[in-house]
Amino acid sequence: MSAPVGNAAPLSLGPGRLWVAPLGTALPTDLGTALDAAFKPVGYTEEGSEFSYELTSDPVEVAESLDPVFYRTTGRNGTVTFAMAENTVRNLTLAFNGGSVTRTTSGAVSYEPPEPGTEVRKVLVFDSEDGEERWIFNQVFQGGSVTMSRRKGADKTTIPVEFRLEKPALGGAPFRAIYADERDGGSGVAPVTP
Questions:
Q1: For 37-53, how does the pLDDT look when each residue is reduced to its tens digit (9 = 90+)?
Q2: pLDDT digits (tens, 9 = 90+) for 126-170
Q3: How far apart are CA 116 and CA 14, in angstroms?
Q4: What is the three-class DSSP state of 80?
């Protein structure tokens, strides 16, 4: 009998939950830390969410070597994308980075997008369904295209967003991932020292 190839326990399944709050909201520091009351659920999504992170680099070359002697980091970009399935005014304010919301005399709600330059940044948090991981995106700006399709039948309208990670105004990294102890990946995992 052969030894198992891997460990199924740390597999991540399901869409989890997304939370949003204003910048400056107290951020969680652990998995067991309850989110501040300012965090509100994003609600249903079309297909869950996707986090993408790209590091760009350029080769440093010298005449005496065919291979680059090393690579220099020249940039990094991170995004969190999802399509909000709940077509609400609150979700429009997320998709358009703020705006003006007023209640009409009849009780309806009116929305107008913000003027350029007055957009509002947010904090975004992802919690996994099993409570074994939490991702904190310290400062995000919705920079994707918003296309709301109206179709016949059971196809619902969604509000697609692409939140782009920014360097936090209060300092620190663009994101932090917190994992349960049993998801450390095995022995030999220790903090990296510069």
A1: 999 999 999 999 999 99
A2: 999 999 999 999 999 999 889 998 888 888 999 999 999 999 988
A3: 36
A4: strand
Cα torsion 44, 149, 90, 22: sign: positive
Phi, psi of 96 (to 5 degrees): -110, 15
Token pair, residue 58, equals 């350029």
Q: Is 119 exposed, middle or buried (0-12, 13-18, 19+ CB in 10 A)?
A: middle
Q: What is the DSSP letter of 120?
A: -
3-state secondary structure of 182: helix
Contact of 39 with 68, CB cutoff 8 Å:
no
- Decide the pairing of beta strands 109-112 and 122-127: unpaired
Q: Are 83 and 47 in contact (CB under 8 A)?
A: yes
Instruction: Fill in the amino acid letter for 6.
Output: G
The first and second tokens of residue 96, run together, are 């358009």
